[in-house]
Amino acid sequence: MNLQQLAVFREVMETGSVSAAARNLGRTQPAISASLKALEANLGMELFEREGRKLVPVPEAHYLLSEAAEILTRVSATETNLVGMRNRSKGSLRIVAMPGPSVYLLPDFVSRIKSGADDLRITLSSRSSPQILNLIAAQAFDVGFCDLSAGNLNTNLYNAETLTCDCLCAVPGDHPLAGRPVIGARDLDDAPMGFLSAGHPTHRDTRAAFERAGVTVDPRVEAQYFIPLLRFVEAGQICTVLDPLSAESYRRMNGDRGRIWFARFEPAVPFGYSIVTPKQRPLSLLARDFVGQWGQHVRGIIAKTAGEGPPFAG
């Protein structure tokens, strides 16, 4: 018994004749009759009593019709769903990211992917970078986006694409340094500063940059993520050294209303992002496309902040 035989059988049952079924299916009457006989042979039972040219369904045929209709409907729905998945207009995508990009930049990017694809189901969660690596290793999400503060990446548990860059400096829009394309550590001697928590590598690297420049650091505010620090920068209370995506998130959220100037910072303070996916499970077409497009998007932002694109300021 195969799907083609079931489709012929259903059409004969619904139309009541071989000739009508042949006409609807675009086949010859002998081909329809042969398909019915093959189905009966496979089942080892007759489905019709033949009275001349008339086919009279036996009770078992009515049972088979109900089952065949459900099977064929499910097969048709499966084909439709797979076509949607092939065209990236159907399916699910589960993303977990660190809080900074999750505020605006990542949802904005994902919403553009979903535009015109109403059947896409998106899950977007926010976790710390160590939690993200654990969740991806456990295959709880399709794609993770974290920074490199979580330590060495265990490539036995997940695939990782690393994107490296240098941090920027953020100063209030009315600060004397605002307008400069590059701000150095010496320019911030004894200025009130905001940092990530002491355990984050960026805290250590930023302090080291000030020490190499021989200037005094005046830490006033610490936060777990960069986005909260920008509220203090807006208020004119601190300056900070931060990653490019946090700066880009602020710029896009605020547009012309932004009250922060972003500039390149010297000496360089390195920062790294990682796009991680489960090691033991192949990616769907949708997830594979997302990884490629998001990586390209992040690289574009990094290039712009590094001076390889248009001037960058908030």
TrEMBL record:
Residue intervals of the HTH lysR-type domain: 1-58
Q: Which GO terms describe its biological process?
A: positive regulation of gene expression
Entry keyword set: DNA-binding, Transcription, Transcription regulation
Establish whether keyword Transcription is in the entry: yes
Q: Name one GO molecular function term.
A: DNA-binding transcription factor activity
Q: Which family does it belong to?
A: Belongs to the LysR transcriptional regulatory family.
**Name of the protein in its database record:** DNA-binding transcriptional LysR family regulator
The organism's taxonomy opens as: Bacteria, Pseudomonadati, Pseudomonadota, Alphaproteobacteria, Rhodobacterales
